[in-house]
Amino acid sequence: MRRIPFVDLKAQFAEEREALMPVVESCLATGAWVGGEAVERLETDLAARCGRAHAVALNSGTDALILGLKALGIGPGDEVITAPNSFIASAGAIIAVGAVPVFADVRPDQNIDPDAVAAAITPRTRAIMPVHLTGRVADMDAVTAIAARHNLAVVEDAAQSFGARYRGRPAGSFGHVGCFSAHPLKNLNAAGDAGFAVTDDAALAERLRRLRSHGLADRNSAPEWGLVSRMDALQAAILSFRLTRLADVIERRRANAALYRRHLAAFNAPCRDHEFNTFHLFVIQADDRDGLRSFLAEQGIATAIHYPIPIHLQPAAAGLGYGPGAFPECERQAARILSLPIHQFLPPEDIDFVCDGIIRFMAAQGAS
Ligand SMILES: *Cc1c(COP(=O)(O)O)cnc(C)c1O
C-alpha cells in the first residue's frame, strides 16, 4: 500500500547530508558551542530577512514569546489578547510571565478577528499577540491600528510563518517584537529546539540578550534575573545553512498548495492577492472531519489536526473562566479542520492520490 507521511525529516537530511555535514563538523571544530560567530552570523541574516534591525537567537519559539513579553515589561496584572485556536504555547507564554491571556475569536482564514480584538480590550490590556497561523500573516493593518489607538504593544507569534508576507512586508516586521520557532516541524527548522525574536528597538534587543543569558549584561554584572534561553551554536550553523535553501522549500510547498487547490479550493481558505503564504500547513474543512481522517488513514495517508482542542477549552485553562461556546468560529473550525501532508518532498502523484481520496469521500457523503 502507498504510504504518505505527514512530514519527512529523514528525506530532508538525505537531501542535504553531503553539504550539511561539513558545516556541522566545522562548527564543532571551532569549540565555540554556545554563542560566538555562528550565532552572530545567523542573527544578522535573520534580521535582514525580517526587515528588522535586530534578531536575537533563542532556544525555542516559546522562549521567544516569553522573553519578548518580559522584555516589554508585561507581567502580573496585565492582560494580553491572543487567538484561542493557536498552539498551546501562545497562551502558555502569557501565563509564564504571570499575565492573563484574553482570547479573541478568529475569522474563516483561521487568523485573529480584529473586531473581536477591539471588543476584548479592557483597562488592563497591555498587548496584542496575533498568531500568523499556518503560514499566513494575520490582518496586521487592522491589528496594528487597534494597538496604536489604544497604546498597546504588539507581540507577533510568527512561529509558523517565517518568510510569509502581508502587503509585501515580512512576518515579524509589524509588531514591537516578532517571535519565531525553528522547531524541527517548522519550515525553517533546526535539528532540535531553536527559536528567535526580531525587533527594531535596540534597547529591547539588548534586554532580550540579557534575559537569554542569566540576566547578565556582561560576564560579571546582572542588572536583572534571567534564564538560559540561548540557541546552541550548532543549531545556528544548521539554520544558517538551511536558510540558504529556504526559498526553495517555500516554493515547493507553495507549488504543492497550488496542486491541492486545483481540486480542493472549495474546502481551503482562499489566498488573497496581498498575501504571500508559506504553507507551514495546508488545512481543509469537512463536515465529517473524523470520518474523512479515518478514511484517508485507511489509504495510508497521514493527516493531522492543528488543533483539535481550542486553548480556552484545555484543562490547563479552566481557571481562565471560559466555557464551550465562548468562541464559536474557533470551536466550529476545531471540529472541522484537517491538515493534509504538504511537505517539500511530496510528489505530485501523491497529492493527486490524496485529492482523489478526499473527493471520493465527499461524494459518498453527499450521496448518502
Ligand atoms: C511551534 C509554535 C510555537 C512554539 O515554538 P517552539 O519552538 O516549539 O517552542 C508557538 N506558537 C505557535 C503558533 C507554534 O506553531
TrEMBL record:
One of its GO terms (biological process) is polysaccharide biosynthetic process. It comes from the Bacteria. CDD domains: AHBA_syn. One of its GO terms (molecular function) is pyridoxal phosphate binding. The modification N6-(pyridoxal phosphate)lysine is found at K186. The keyword ATP-binding does not apply. Keywords: Pyridoxal phosphate. The active site is at K186. Belongs to the DegT/DnrJ/EryC1 family. PANTHER family: TRANSAMINASE (PTHR30244), UDP-2-ACETAMIDO-2-DEOXY-3-OXO-D-GLUCURONATE AMINOTRANSFERASE (PTHR30244:SF42). This is Transcriptional regulator. It comes from Magnetospirillum moscoviense. The lineage of its organism: Bacteria, Pseudomonadati, Pseudomonadota, Alphaproteobacteria, Rhodospirillales.
